[in-house]
Amino acid sequence: MTAHAKVVIIGGGPAAYTAALYAARAGLEPVCFEGFNSGGQIARSGRLDNYPGLPGINGADLGSTIRDQATEYGATFEFSDVFEIELGSTPFRLTGMDGEHTADVVIVATGAASRKLGLPSEEALDGKGVAYCAICDGPVFAGKSVVVVGGGDAAVGEALALRHVVGKVTLVHRRTAFRAGAVLRAALAAATDIEVVTPAVVEDILGVEAGGVTGVRVRMVDDGTLRDLDAEGVFVAIGHEPASQLFQPWLKCDGSGFIITEPGTTATNVPGVFAAGDVADPRYRQAVTAAASGCQAAIDAERYLVGRDFLTAATDPSHPTI
Q1: Can you give the residue ranges of the FAD/NAD(P)-binding domain (predicted)?
Q2: How many degrees, rounded to 5, is the angle at CA 130 between CA 183 and CA 224?
Q3: 138-162 pLDDT, tens digit each
């Protein structure tokens, strides 16, 4: 038997959970397919000091706190991925572990994952000195030496930001020329406290046996020689991959795969489908901005349903949602 919901949310991070909270408070009885790794990318983070009002909370606790709030108001969570989806007609159809579901509205909040170097040592030391967000994790390395890997805006920007926090920054890029914008390149050229190692490819991250990063081994592209760089932290900044593949047959995406939304809203090119969080955000990628866009998506979803006479508004008079 096919189960129907007014609103189905796909994802398991701050955007999805906040969308579930707001949709539940609006009486939309949302069903959230949070996948097999609930909490999203933020669940892998340690202490968070930049989430307003909750200083020091860790990523997993942040996710579970929002999830619990949403559950209290009637949201349902499915510990399952969505394997198939059809957005070409309404009601929308999707398939999870327990079979087929239909929905009047779909909110896509599947997030984006940091691209990785693909090294076994990177995986082994993830969270033990290997990080992917300077804003999130930079203060952990105060006074220590770190290596930033990458050559685009993200890498150069993180190197410039980290030099005010850590003891020493070394920037490694596989090419001699950086792909970052002109302003960032000029700032890097003027930053005498950042060591630039180019062209060089990361061969290994050292410290697996020690249980924490102790250095980075690079291969110099010009002559093939190996060089070991001292480091207690490694920030990999080689881009992000939005989890949008399942939706690309229907939803417009940019060249990197991020879902395109209408300016000022979370609406996609398909009426009734909204996108929130990192899957539609190539720029900020913060827990607080993801949560905010989840709120927006739920409000946009309610307004969409009201406008098409799927429901009557004003389900929470003391806190009206539209």
Answers
A1: 6-294
A2: 75
A3: 999 999 999 999 999 889 999 999 9
